[in-house]
Amino acid sequence: MLQILLILVLALISGYWISSLLIDGVFQAPFAEAFIHFCENVLQLDFYAAQKAYSIIFQQNKQLWLTTGLILLLLVIFYFALSRFTKYFHHIALGVNSLLAESDKDIQLPAELEFMEKKLNVVKNTLEKRAKDAQEAEQRKNDLVVYLAHDIKTPLTSIMGYLSLLDEAKDMPLEQKEKYVKVTLDKSYRLEQLINEFFEITRFNLQSIILDKEAINLNYMLMQLADEFYPLLAPKGQQAIVDVKEDIKVLADANKLARVFNNIFKNAIAYSDENSIINIHAEKQNDQIHISFTNKGKAIPPQKLTMIFEKFYRLDSSRSTQTGGAGLGLAIANEIVQAHGGTISAISTDEKTVFTVSLPSFS
Fold first, then answer.
1. What are phi and psi for residue 292, nearest 5 degrees?
2. What's the number of CA atoms in the CB half-sphere (13 Å) around residue 150?
3. Is CATH 3.30.565.10 the right assignment for the domain spanning 213-360?
4. In the chain, where does the domain assigned CATH 3.30.565.10 lie?
């Protein structure tokens, strides 16, 4: 815009200079003589008629001719300016085409369009990162589906085998029959768990989180959580200690918040050392409530710590689905906490791993 205004000012100055110094000055007499000479020799007019024609055409319509000349000058200047802008648009179009072509090279534009070049490259890098993340998530999902499908065969084969033995051996001793029935039941439970994980995978991207909030006594919820998980803690000699020094209430969806704590607690149990203590602590600071789960176990590498809340990411890829889940627990927990307007984070050292859920306080 500044360039256009500068061009208009220069055009007006040039027009005034041409009018005052050239048309009314240096070129006036030679032009008048040339016009009269043309009328006398070509149009066969006498001198007075030619002089009168000059006066009528030029002197009496001087402003019209000057205006016409200025308009033509502006049109010429506008044409060249428009050509320049058209060139810029052409470069921008080429940059957008490079963006669509998903080229590995950075987008380059003329120096005047450096701001647009930076924005296009930011968009390009953002789209590339999103595409890469989506591809990796899809690959992890596909791998887990394959693992789950493979692992389903194991309990199913066992169930069919034991049921066949029970069907064929009618006179099987009662003690042995009870043993086979128990094994078959355990395998059935495992099969049900794997099938549920299949549903979890397909349901994760389809459902929107709808919250039914109510006032929840956080102390009571965490104590109940620790009691419910005793059967998982006992085999490894683990303990859960709940430390909530005051009566804290939070406005949240009870079922979904319980799911968040369940997923974090299960993860802490799975990766804690034997005979260790898992500390559950909650406190209110200003307008935030912080709930932390601290366990002692193998440290989570920094590069993996930033990915544990991603969909279908499992911390230990060597853990089969026989011992690990579908990698959705922490991702779902993250989604639920964000829906409540809170955050979830994790830190890990050689001494301890801490998962912290922060939620808005309820006054």
1. -120, 145
2. 9
3. yes
4. 213-360
